[in-house]
Write a structure and sequence with these properties.
- There is one protein chain.
- 45% of the residues are buried.
- A hairpin with a 4-residue loop joins β1 (24-30) and β2.
- The protein has an eight-stranded mixed sheet with strand order 5-4-3-2-1-6-8-7, with helices on both faces. A six-stranded mixed sheet has the order 11-10-9-12-14-13, sandwiched between helices.
- It is 36% helix and 19% strand.
- It has helices at residues 83-96, 128-136, 145-158, 178-181, 187-192, 202-215, 269-276, 282-291, 294-299, 304-312, 316-340, 350-355, 357-364, 376-380, 405-416; strands spanning 24-30, 35-41, 46-54, 62-67, 72-77, 106-113, 124-125, 164-168, 224-230, 234-240, 243-247, 345-349, 387-388, 397-400.
- With 422 residues, the protein is α/β, with parallel strands linked by helices.
- It is built from 15 helices and 14 strands.
- α1 (83-96) packs across α3, α10 (304-312) packs across α11 and α11 (316-340) packs across α13 (357-364).
């Protein structure tokens, strides 16, 4: 396989401007056995419908659909053979609400694509050339890109006249300098096999860093932000004046922070040791590190709420798992502080980051010398709004900013096809 070209704008198909009446965007996130979707009206960024198809390809498939206008939620249970059948079922549900895929108000369909390599640095209208390049990236994203491709191809077949836009998890991180993106291995071997640090959760890091700047009353180009995206998957990024200069995930989403079921940073020799001494196959090691490690591997739970409950009951195993999780967080905060030189804000986002006050408190504790502190009362407040949890007048702000990857995908999609998002 040839090396990626230098970062550049990706190829794109014909861009069809959205008409004044076409203000809706359908966002699709196709997983290996699931299909998440949201329909948004970009005049006011409101959601018209949301839903999820689970266990695609199984006899126990389930579709849960909610129309936000009526407040009605409907469920289907039974076999859904493949993603084509899943998307057709979604289209039927939307049609029942009068907001179907055949609506002239639908401007485009935006697709989350996990891996865009170095080729795709921005949202891209899909054509055959784009599909070919996404397919070429399958070796570095074998679990994600095939499912993303299936969703795109299915949507194109259903609405061949409609712009399909790919929004890449990796795009925001393509601004990293080579000193941050390169691993210290033979560059010829690395280029031949596309081995470098790509980073993920890019739509979240991009939108949250921008929203943090707004929260501070500044332009994104004026601030340096450390973003901590803490969900079941977790990643950190150093954002300098609106551009990513480092991120914790690498060639795959396995590198970096301790996650729900992923180990995060690991001595590579552990893999050799498990193979040679432990007699484990590569597939067994892959499963161990991706699905049976992290918080789950340490204490048998990957739900932070359950871990905190166990800690409150005196569970030492859960307490150690929490301490390991927080220790890794603190290491990355310190490392990215050094990378940036000056920091205006540290921001927590995603499920754990937005809701687990003890995680935020523990991650910032002891970092007062860096200008970081948590106000206990502010930190204890539960809210779905962006907010500061640092004391008034703190040298470095600590913020909680909800992530909204679907809105970010819809916004980028609508802007690309000629609309003006709210």
């Amino acid at each position: 396989m040839t090396a990626d070209p230098s970062p550049a704008s990706a190829p794109s198909g014909e861009e069809r401007p959205a008409t004044s009446s076409a203000t809706r965007v359908l966002v699709l996130n196709s997983g290996s056995s699931s299909l998440k979707y949201q329909l948004l009206d970009m005049r006011d960024s409101s959601r018209l419908a949301v839903g999820l198809v689970e266990r695609v390809g199984e006899q126990t498939s389930r579709l849960k659909h909610t129309c936000l206008g009526s407040g009605e939620t409907r469920e289907q249970n039974g076999p859904i053979a493949d993603h084509e059948a899943a998307l057709k079922a979604v289209a039927d549900e939307l049609s029942r609400d009068g907001i179907g895929l055949d609506s002239p108000e639908l401007a485009a369909i935006g697709h989350r694509v996990v891996h865009g390599g170095m080729f795709f640095t921005e949202p891209t209208v899909v054509d055959d050339e784009v599909l070919t390049e996404i397919e070429r990236l399958i070796p570095v994203a074998p679990l994600h890109n095939p499912a993303n491709l299936t969703g795109i191809r299915t949507a194109r077949a259903l609405r061949p006249d409609l712009p399909q836009v790919a929004v890449f998890d990796t795009a925001f991180h393509t601004t990293m300098p080579e000193s941050a993106a390169r691993y210290a291995i033979d560059p010829k071997i690395a280029d031949r096999h596309r081995i470098r640090r790509y980073g993920f959760h890019g739509t979240s890091h991009a939108s949250v860093s921008r929203e943090t700047a707004r929260l501070l009353g500044k332009d994104p180009a004026e601030v340096n932000v450390i973003v901590l995206h803490l969900g079941n998957g977790a990643s950190a990024s150093a954002v300098e004046k609106g551009r990513c200069v480092d991120t914790s995930m690498g060639l795959t989403p396995l590198e970096g922070l301790v996650m729900g079921t992923r180990s995060g940073d690991l001595d590579p020799a552990v893999i050799f040791h498990l193979a040679r001494v432990g007699g484990m196959s590569m597939d067994e090691i892959d499963t161990l590190l991706n699905k049976r490690s992290g918080l789950f591997g340490l204490c048998g739970d990957n739900d932070m709420r359950e871990i905190r409950r166990r800690i409150d009951e005196g569970d030492e195993e859960a307490a150690l798992a929490f301490d390991i999780y927080v220790h890794r967080l603190r290491k990355y905060i310190g490392a990215y502080y050094a990378v940036l030189g000056t920091v205006d804000a540290v921001v927590f986002t995603a499920g754990v980051g937005e809701n687990a006050a003890p995680v935020r408190e523990a991650a910032i504790a002891g970092l007062e010398a860096l200008g970081l502190a948590i106000d206990g009362d502010l930190n204890a407040v539960r809210s779905d709004q962006a907010r500061l949890v640092s004391p008034p007048g703190a040298r470095v702000a600590v913020a909680v900013v909800p992530t909204d990857e679907e809105l970010e995908i819809a916004t980028q999609t609508y802007a690309l096809v000629g609309g003006e998002a709210a």
